[in-house]
# Entry
Amino acid sequence: MKKSQANGHYLFTSESVSLGHPDKVSDQISDAVLDSLIRHDPMARVACETLCTTGLVVIAGEVTVHNAAAEKALLEVEETARRTIKRIGYTDPAMKFDSESCAIIRTLHGQSGDISMGVDREGAGDQGMMFGFACRETPELMPLPIMLAHKLMDRHQKVREKNIIPGLRPDAKSQVTVEYDGLKPVRIHTVVISTQHHPMWNGPRKQAELKKAVTKHIIEPIMPKKMWHGDAVIHVNPTGQFEIGGPHGDTGLTGRKIIVDTYGGRGRHGGGAFSGKDPTKVDRSAAYMCRYIAKNIVAAGLADVCEIQLSYAIGVAEPTSVHVDCFGTGKLGNHAISELVREHFQLTPRGIIKMLDLRKPIYEQTAFHGHFGKPSFNWEKTDVAPKLAKAAKIR
# Structure
C-alpha cells in the first residue's frame, strides 16, 4: 500500500485460481513429491519443478535424500503425481488430462555440490529478498481482496465436489475488486469467476443459467454483507463459455502464481516461488517467516499495516538486511520495530526452520488457495504478539 493511498477512494483488485488451474496442478505435484520425501527424510534437499500439458506431466529438478525409505519414495514419484491429479479432480478422459492416462516423465538428479556446500554450513540455500505482509482488513490479518478471491475458490471446490452445480470442472479463476476509503475497504465493486464446465453448459442461454447458479451458490455466500450491494458488477465466464480447460487448455508450470500465493499484489514480492522447495530454500522459508513477523506485529497492536523484508546471501546464515515498513501506521518507529524483530525472531535459515517447524510434510496443503491466511500453518500463529506488545511498552 503506497503512502499516497492513505486518503481518498480507489479500487484494488486481486485474483485467485482453483486447485485445478494448470499452474496449481504443477505446484501441487511438486509439493506432493516434496512431502513424500520429507516424510521419510526430514533433511532431504528438494527443488522439484513440474510441467503439465495435454496428456503429459514432466517432473524435473534436483533431489538429494539420505536413507532407503526416501530413495523408495523417490522411485514412486509417478504414483505420487497420479494420486495428486486424482485428488484435484482430473479423472475424466474427456478433459484430455486425467490421472490414469497421462504420461509422466521423471528427470531428477542430485543437488549441486556447490549449493549443498553452503547449506551444509547452515547458510541460505539461495540469495534473494523475501517479503511478508499483514493488515487489519480481515480476521486473518490479510488484505480483503485476496482473501475473498481465495474463499471463492474454496467455495467453488466444495460446490463442485458436492455437485451442487452439476457439470463444474476443476479449472477456475476468481477476481475481486474492492473499493477503499484510505486504508479501509468499504464496498465490493466487481466479482469475476471463470469456471470450466461440462458441454451441457455451452450456449448463451445455458451460460445465463450458469451465471445465476454461480452467483447464488458460490459468490453470494462468500461476500461480506455490509459491503455487498445491489450495484456490484458480476462477471461469470465473460468469454462466453469455458469447456476447454485444465492442462489441455493451458500448459501449467510450477511457480507461476506467486502473487496468488502471497498477497494478491498488496505489498511487494521478492520474485521467488515456493512450491517444490525444501525449507533450506529461503525463497520459501524466509517468506513464511516474513509473514509470521508481520502478522505478529499487527496482532500485537504495533501497527495497522506492516511489511517485512529479509534478504540473504547464498551460503551465509545471517540475513544481509532486515527492513520494516508500517506505512505510517506504526505505534513505534520502523527502526524500533526492526530491533524488536531481531530480538524476538530467529532469522537464520536454521532458526527459521526450527521456529516454524518446517521439516514436516505440510507443503501440499499450501499449494492451492494461498500460502497465507490459513490458521493451520505455523507462520499464521500470533504467539509472539504478547511478547512484542510487552517489549514495546518499555521502549
User: Anything to note?
Assistant: DSSP finds twelve helices and eleven strands in the chain. Residues 144-161 form the longest helix (18 residues). The chain has a mean pLDDT of 94. The two ends are 27 Å apart (CA to CA).
